[in-house]
Structure of Glycosyl transferase family 90-domain-containing protein:
Amino acid sequence: MPQITSRSRRYSQLLVGGFISWIVLTRLPSLFLGPFSYVDIANTATECNTDARADRNSEDDGWSEQKTSLLEREKKAKGQHTYRPDGLLEVNPKGPHPIFELMDRAEKEWNDKLRKASTSLDEAIVEYRRRYRRNPPKGFDKWWEYVQKHNVQLPDEYDQIYHDMEPFWGLKPSYLLELQAERESKLDTYTIGKNADGKLDILKTSSQRGSYAQLISIATKVLDVLRDVEDELPSFRATFTPHDVPNLMTDYVVKSKLLEAARTDSHIGKAQIPSVHRLGWLSACDPESPARQIDFNLDGPSPPKPKKSFIYDHLLTMNPCLHPDLFWVHGQFLSHDTGPNTCPTMIPEFSSCSTSLHHNIRFPTPYGWVEDILPRSDDPDFADKTDERLLWRGTNTGIHHSPRTRWQSSHRNTLVRTVNEVNGTLDFLVSPNLGYEDQPVDNPKTARRARLNPAMMDAAFVREPSQCDEPTCSQMKQIYEYKDMQSMKDAGNYKYVLDMDGNGWSGRFKRLMTSNSLVFKTTIYPEWFVDRVAPWVHYIPVQVDLSDLYDSLIFFRGDSNGEGAHEELARQIALQGREWSKKYWRREDIIAYSYRLFLEYARIMSLDREAMTYQGEGEIHFDRWKKDEDIMQDPPLH
């Protein structure tokens, strides 16, 4: 993908205005007020307190706090938005609309990632060592040949594999093999790997009555992904769950212990595994995390959030330990109330998706994959699409609907109810007209739902109520209007589309990204491509509670009257999203990820991990990066 050019012309007014404001606020006061201006006081304090610091610790600490407070107030006065450590940007009403900043920031990070990508085997080996503090797995050179032959982009961006695999480095290989063998007999699993002839095969299934054919069908599709590299893969046995949700809950203390062992190149056996905690979902969270500080009562209100915020780091916002409100709004969590028991250890099992609270190993499932939308006439150019509402259609999956569950709070139910509500009002940020991008975004504006929703939203359940018991099924028919499914041609006429989780990850994201529509996405499941895609460059990230949905949509399509629309930016991201899908989510990209995944898996499962490590030499060139600051950190355990 060519690098994305910045929108410097559009922001020339903003930059000039900002420079003039800086002169007025910081330089002029120093000319007239002398040493008592704020800026000079701060600089003088830094210089003068250096020698006296040892004798005046208490006074200096107090001044440091005061200085920090003054700096924060200055930032707010200048209209700077706050980037929180949990992945959210908190809106400052005195700043310009934050989406301009989010797009520019994302473009820069994406271009930097493209620029730093390895272009040779030597560079790839050095980068692997820099990130993961060990040598690549055996067969890495052959994997690199595949990557080069098939023009796989971003050959360094496989951190998700590292995060999935790293805890298992802390377990003794013999214990891992024991755990894997036990898992093969678990009901509703299938095991693939190399047979006695060295060919990929379904090695074992364990199914409920009537589900054998489905297991075989799913396993066959997984094997089809690996067929092209069958001869290059080492021997392995890998057990999969066929379900579309993860099922292995992680205990924070156990994972921490394993990561520490991995970091020190040591191994833990069964006898050394710490005792697990029985705290439900919270067992997977750091004791100091936000989730462990709240009153976890699903019958009460969810934890408070900023009045207005946007996602700048989508991965962080998928973590309920950092965002405990997710326990109140997503069916994955609501289905189990305060949460299931954790596994006594970490078990090597693959699944189609996982969350930050589970340790299932992600596999890039081919489900829902399309090469293109055909015929192309069903997907007009963004500018030629005529429906400016946000489209979503789907079944009411995500949770089982019964009097015993909190189904009305689940994510899909919340969406359909929210965007079809005509009573009451909602607050949204006003989108600036072209040429006024530097104006403060100001406080939200209030509008009647009856005016906004019919003009801007088109979301509905299809067919009939499903995953429900009576009398809830009948109740759902009264609450929701169930519509017919749309044809691809009809759906292709919408400029804006929403992608949302179902029972598990969404299988339609690939198709939506391949279209010329602008995709809005909300999810709690980090997928295999999370390191290889850029929110605000290729799609629009949306919080699960939909608190930023209207703000983002209005920015691009304008309000109910079309005021403040930025359709040229919407079209830009839509086209970049389609280009990304065609260039970064090809069949060859899925194979490259799976190939590397099983090289890593075969190594951690080997009794002789050193023998399964690549022994080739890579030239050491660290001048492209800082040696210490950019080393891969262990997965956040918040």
Notes: Residues 376-586 form a domain with the Rossmann fold fold (CATH 3.40.50). The chain has 21 helices and 15 strands. The first strand starts at residue 82 and ends at 83. Residues 12-33 form the longest helix (22 residues).
